Amino acid sequence: MKTILCLMICALVGAAVQFAGVPHGLLLGTIVASATLVSRLRFTPNLRFGLEYVQLVMGIATGLMFEAWDSATVASILPSLGFLLLCLSAQISVAGLWLFKGCGWSLKDSLLAVYPGALAAVFDLLESERASSKVIVVHLMRLVSITLLVSLCIRAGSDAPAVASASLTPSLLLTLASLLALCILLGRLLLKLGVPAPFMLTAIIATAAYVKLGLLQAFHMPGWSVDFAALILGVLIGARFREIRLKELIRHGSAGLMSVGLMLLVAAAFAGVAAKVLGSDPFTLWLAYMPGAIETIAIVAFSGGLNVVFVLSHHLVRMLLLHFAPALIVQARRWRENV
């Protein structure tokens, strides 16, 4: 009952902020309302499959855009991926060195704090490495900072005319059901390996395959499904603040903001260089090189009319590089402990 009431209040606040003209007000208003409610009432909303819903919706919406995907598009992305690898190395080095030398943190906490991955994998690593709570504060600062920054920088709404979706025939419903079943099955397999955002990964790939096979022609995700995903994501982000005490947030928040700022500046620098070398849009490259928050960036970029395929392709590569190896390390360590 508390969860339903929380969702209703957050939806009303988010709608009011959106109506007031704030870019992506539904998402931002929901984050503020959720953080306030969980802090005041001291409860955590029970959204058992909330993050999975967000990943599936945004993954399918992104996969549908692969209709125009061809070899030329792949060739245009590959050079930028080289800059992404250098950018990730520089982000970890600069921000980690500042926490280690400037703030006097231990090397382990410094590296875990600037690990540019999704919270799911971060929490798994924190549990395995028994890191301090200040590391969690840094990652929350990173998540909220990127969400606010991206939401305020991108104008909501696309100038492109709305495209009508195909009617839901029995054949299309059966196709969608098989797609969802495939995404959930493969996503659960990746989840057991510790891969973060697994349902978004499988939804993007499976949907793109369905599109290329001609099974989802003229189908588009309904607007309400994306709005509901933004609502759920906002509640999930805001609820994270219940895990952190106010004293810890104040004590380590400045270090978290500084480290996130350094990582974003490094991403901006690499985006500027890559834009001149590759002749691409620097802002789109900056979004592609950001250290995390793939669900937020997907929602904001999708509603802002940006090149979601280009941006999320970089984030998926980042996830594969940063999460498969640590996930295997964690699983191997747990296996040794059980043996």
TrEMBL record:
Keywords: Membrane, Transmembrane, Transmembrane helix
Transmembrane feature ranges: 25-43, 50-69, 81-100, 135-157, 163-186, 193-211, 223-241, 253-274, 286-312
Pfam families linked: AbrB (PF05145)
The protein's name in its UniProt record: AbrB family transcriptional regulator
Keyword Membrane: yes
Organism of derivation: Pseudomonas donghuensis
GO cellular component terms attached to this protein's record: membrane
Superkingdom classification of source: Bacteria
Entry's Gene Ontology BP terms: regulation of gene expression
